[in-house]
Structure formats: C-alpha cells, structure tokens
Amino acid sequence: MDMPKELEERIGEIELVLKRYLPKEEGHQKTVLEAMNYSLLAGGKRLRPMLMRETYHLFSGESTIIEPFLAAIEMVHTYSLVHDDLPAMDNDEYRRGKKTTHIAYGEAMAILAGDALLNYAYETAAQAFCMAKDGETDRVIQAFSVFANKAGIYGMVGGQTADVESEGAPSISGEKLDFIYRKKTGALMESAMQVGAILAGASVKEQRLVEELAGEVGLAFQIQDDILDQTSTFEKLGKPIGSDAKNEKRTYVQLYGMEKAKEDVIRLFSDAMEKLASLPGDNPFLNELLRYIVHREK
Amino acid sequence: MDMPKELEERIGEIELVLKRYLPKEEGHQKTVLEAMNYSLLAGGKRLRPMLMRETYHLFSGESTIIEPFLAAIEMVHTYSLVHDDLPAMDNDEYRRGKKTTHIAYGEAMAILAGDALLNYAYETAAQAFCMAKDGETDRVIQAFSVFANKAGIYGMVGGQTADVESEGAPSISGEKLDFIYRKKTGALMESAMQVGAILAGASVKEQRLVEELAGEVGLAFQIQDDILDQTSTFEKLGKPIGSDAKNEKRTYVQLYGMEKAKEDVIRLFSDAMEKLASLPGDNPFLNELLRYIVHREK
After folding, report:
1. Which of A268, A291, B30, B126 could form a disulfide with A220 if both were Cys (CB 3.0 to 4.6 A apart)?
2. pLDDT per residue over A121-158, tens digit each?
3. Is residue A168 a part of any domain in this protein?
4. Which residues constitute the domain of residue A40?
5. Could you tell me which residue, A246 or B107, shows the higher pLDDT?
6. Which 3-state string (H, E, C) describes B157-201?
7. Pick the residue with more confidence: A31 or A168?
8. Distance from A119 to chain B by nearest Cα, in Å?
9. d(CA A17, CA A292)
10. What is the structure's pLDDT at A237?
11. What share of chain A is helix, strand, coil (3-state, %, to 5)?
C-alpha cells in the first residue's frame, strides 16, 4: 500500500516537534551538531514518534509532556542508523537516497555524531521531568526506564549484537532470528507505544497488551523489510536492494521462504489488530498507521 | 607523587559497587556484555566515581542513592575510551597495559560495546529514582540532568569533536585548546563532583563552587596528561608515550612550553584547593585525592 495522505501530513507535525529540540549549530563543537542534524533531517517516516503520539492519544493523553520523548526516540533511532552504516558495521554509503553520515562527515565525526545523538536523546527526554505536573513525575520515571531498557543491551543493542554475529554464519536457528528481529527492530516500536501508553496513564494490563502488539508489529515490519530487500528497487527504497545478501545477513525470507514470510506478516498484523481492538479507546489513524507500517512497499 | 595507600583501598570499594551493576554475561547478546565488562574491568583509577563519592561525603551524604551514579559515570568514561581508541579515532591498540576493546573483540563489537555502555549508564543511573525517599526525587532529577549535560554535546562529546578537528591543524588558539580540555576531560570531573554535591543536598551556591573547582582540577589533570605523554614511559603509563605527537594533537605543552604547563598545573590546583577550603564540611581524603589527580606520575 502507498503512504496514506494523513500520514504525510502528520510526518510534518512530528518534524516540527523534532526541529524544536534540535541543537543549534554553533560553537567549537559545530561540526558534530551539523552531523547530528544532517542525519536527523535526512527524511524518514518518523514511525516511532508517530506510534508514540498515536498511542498516547489512544489513551486520551493530551499534554505536551510527550514531546521530549517524541524527539528522543527519533534521536535514538537515528544514532543506531548512523553507527549501523559505518564501514565496520554494514558499510552503507546511501540511506534514504542521501549520503550516509560517515560519507558526508568522515568516520570519526559519524562515530561522535552517533554518540552525541544517543546522549542528547537522554538529555531531551529528561526535559519531561521539568514539564511534569502533580502526579505526572512517576509516569515520566516509568517511561524513562522503559525507554532506556528498550534501547540498550536488553533491547536494540542486544539485537544488533546477535545480528552482527550472525553475519556470514552458515545457518541460524529460528529462535535466534526471532530474538534478533524482536530486539533489533521490535524493541524501539515497543518503546514507542509503551512510553505513549505510560505517559497517558494506561493500566499495567493495558501497557502489557500494548507491548505485545507493538512486538508483533515490529517483527512484521522487519520481515517486510527482508521482503522489500529482495523485491523492491533502489529508486523506491532510496538505498541499494540486495544489501542483506551483500552483508551475508541471515534473513527470515532465507530461512522460511518468501511465501511463509508473506503469510507471517499478515498473521502478525492480524494478531496485533485483535489486541488493539481489545483496548479501550479508539484511534482510527493508529489502525491505519499500523496497517501501513506492516504492508508498506518502500 | 605515588598513589596514596588509602586511594588503593578505596579503588577496591568503588570496584565492588561497579561489579554489582555489571550486566550478566548471558543470552544471545553475550558477546557485547563480555566486551562491556572487559573494558569496564580493564583497571583504571576510578577517579570519577571516587570524586563523586567523596564530594557526596563532604556534604554529609550518607545513603546508597549515590551508587547507581558511581557506576554510571564510570560506564560513560569507559564508553568514551572504547570509542576514542577506534581506528577512525586515535587508533590505539593498548590501554592500561591491556589490548583495547576493538583489538580484543573486533571493531563492530567495540562500536556496539561503547553504545551499550553509554545506554546502560542511563539505565543504571535511572535506578536511583526507585531508591529515592521522600524529597529525594527532585535531587535525582537535577543530578540526572547535570549528568546528561556534561556527557554530551555541551560537555565531553563537544570537547572530543573540537579535539578531533584540531588534529593535524597547523595551529590552535589558546581559547580553543582551553575549550577542548575543559570539555573533553573537565566535563566528567565537573559531573562527578556536581552530582555528588546535588545528591547530598548542597545549596546552589555550593554546587557552583564545586563545578568551578572541578573544572580547574580537570584542566590541570589534562595538562598533566600532556606532560606525562612527553616525560613518562610505556611501563609506567601502560600505553605508548608520544601518542599526542603520533596523532598530531595540539597540546598545552606544545602551545605554551613545558615550564608554563607545569606552573599552570600548580596554579590551577592551588585555586581549586582555595575554593574547596571555602566550602563547609571537611574531607581530608578528598584533598589528598585532588592532589594526587593533579600531581600523579602515571
């Protein structure tokens, strides 16, 4: 499916928030600030902040306390791309049709820009503490803890580690591939939706359901990524196709075949939508967004 | 001066705290956990957590709420070393007499281990929120904010950026070199002492004095580093001497000469001690520690 019209508009809204939290490009450290902003503003669908905001609205969240976290999760996502693209990692020269950060700014500056983005994500998220009104501080503390956990060794970085190690391996177990996909990609989706739910005051049971459905969406998203890596074009993706094969990545399509991969995307999406329907509240755009995330063609 | 006997004992105490916060080396992400712990346990004088704890005691802090921050600041310091040592940065193969992380684990894993350490520092520091008793939450929020600020683009990463850019430059202004030293090295010393003061309930005026004196100590520490890079030996330092020249670093010794460098170390230390004496409370070991930091011979 193509990108829904409403999604395009809302990308603009998210980018306005993001731009308010960008550092000013000045001082002796100007180059790293430019490299951070270059990578943050290199396009992208802003899916993680959008998932966060729409989940916040699903649970009737209405304050601006969500905004630092919207910017912060995009910073974490972007740092992971900048470091993933490095020569010692995936060695990619293009991302979203633009030169990757180390090509544009050199390798040392790309390492520092990634570090800077990760750290600035925490500086930015911590601004929510100053915005918290009576009773909101505990929610910010809980959101912060989930946010940090899902980004690190028990989340995204954990998945990246197993992913790097699986490159070039003769085979991989289904269980390990599931771990990689759920952590490398799923963890930040879980973070996005859980932080939205927590800040809006969702119950523990609701938070748990949100985590589960976000995990299913994240897994389906990554399987769809594998599918597109084999079936799309450079023009559509803005990066070379076939990069999984180039990096000797073990993929879902390789392990289970294209047909099962496509079936599983549909099944995971359907399971996620069932869980979403069981939650109180209604946010038709969130349904549409999840459908697009899973069934996108680029 | 040699390391005071008491300092050696207290390094052991800090390491006991650090070890309680180390991640367990298990699961599909085991390798990154091993690389994190390898770099965290590669020795070192634990000066930053020690400064933090002794400043906490100076202001009569007595609870264990400081402990997550003690571990967290050592994690931030260690991530910066792991990334600094990478081939695209300083390209160092030895640190504290041991192989650097990318030599022991490969470059991709060293990038991930650095990212993991930085992120885990925030996960660890955030544990202080759960330990906070009545009225302590606001202190933890403030400490967290200083901690993040001093590590990032307006602190350590900012200094590293200017440092990387100054390599191989034909000359450098005194003002820029001061910025590099105060940020690259001084910022984490400021963070250490400020977090200790904040968590113990120091007044805003006292916090400001602590920040200033920590900045002076940090600057003196870095100048002493330059001096040792020219005058010490591999055996004493545990790493090759002359590495500043190898990396075409612009140094204080180069800009002002050895004599003025040595004089300034003494002057900065004396200014810092004067500020320390003007604060309430007394911690003779902190005086001794600052003297050692500035006048160490390795």
Report:
1. A268
2. 999 999 999 999 988 999 999 999 999 999 999 999 99
3. yes
4. 5-293
5. B107
6. HHHHHHHHHHCCCCCCCHHHHHHHHHHHHHHHHHHHHHHHHHHCC
7. A31
8. 6
9. 22
10. 66
11. 70, 0, 25
Residue of B86, B108, B165 with shortest CB distance to A111? B86
pLDDT at B135 over 80: yes
Q: How many domains does chain A have?
A: 1
Whole-structure pTM value: 0.96
Q: Look-up: residue for tokens 């906490």?
A: B56
What is the distance between the alpha carbons of residues A201 and A62, in angstroms, rounded to a whole number?
11
pLDDT digits (tens, 9 = 90+) for A223-233: 999 999 888 77
Residues 6+ apart with CB under 8 A from A104: A35, A38, A98
CA B129-A78-B78 angle, to 5 degrees, is 55
Contact indicator for B249, B166 with CB cutoff of 8 Å = yes
Tokens, residue A96: 């979203």
Is the distance from CB of B73 to CB of B191 less than 8 angstroms? yes
Q: Is residue B289 part of a domain?
A: no
Q: Is A298 inside any structural domain?
A: no
Verify whether the Cβ–Cβ distance A153 to B86 is below 8 Å.
no
| Both structure tokens of A48 | 């993680």
- Cβ atoms of B122 and B76 within 8 Å: the answer is no
Predicted pLDDT of residue B242? 72
CATH of the domain at B83: 1.10.600.10
Asked whether residue B287 is domain-assigned, the answer is: no
Count CA atoms closer than 13 A to B74's CA, side-chain side: 30
CA dihedral A225, B116, B19, B196 (to 10 degrees): -140
Of A31, A148, A151, the CB nearest to B161: A31
Instruction: Report which secondary-structure segment, H or E, holds A14.
Output: helix A5-21
Query: Using a CB-CB distance cutoff of 8 angstroms, which residues of chain B are in contact with residue A106?
Result: 88
Neighbouring CB atoms inside 10 A of A1's CB total 10
CA distance A110 to A121: 16
For the segment B74-117, what is each residue's pLDDT rounded down to a tens digit?
A: 999 999 999 999 999 999 999 988 999 999 999 999 999 999 99
Whether A28 sits inside 8 A of B112 (CB atoms) is: no
Minimum Cα–Cα distance from A180: chain B residue: B28
Nearest CA-CA distance, residue A26 and chain B, Å: 11
Average pLDDT over residues A110-114: 98
Close Cβ partners of B113 (under 8 Å, ≥ 6 residues apart)? B32, B35, B36, B39, B79, B82, B101, B105
Contact A126 B144 (CB under 8 A): yes
**Contact status, residue B230 vs residue B189, Cβ threshold 8 Å:** no
Q: Which residues neighbour B202 within 8 Å (Cβ) at sequence distance 6 or greater?
A: B59, B210
Q: Residue A79's Cα: distance from chain center in Å?
A: 11
For strands A98-99 and A94-95, give the pairing. antiparallel
- Which burial class, exposed, middle or buried, applies to A214 when counting CB atoms under 10 A from its CB (0-12, 13-18, 19+)? buried
The verdict on a CB contact (< 8 Å) between A31 and B126 is no
Q: Which two tokens stand for residue B143?
A: 């400490």
CA–CA dist A236, A233 (Å, integer): 5
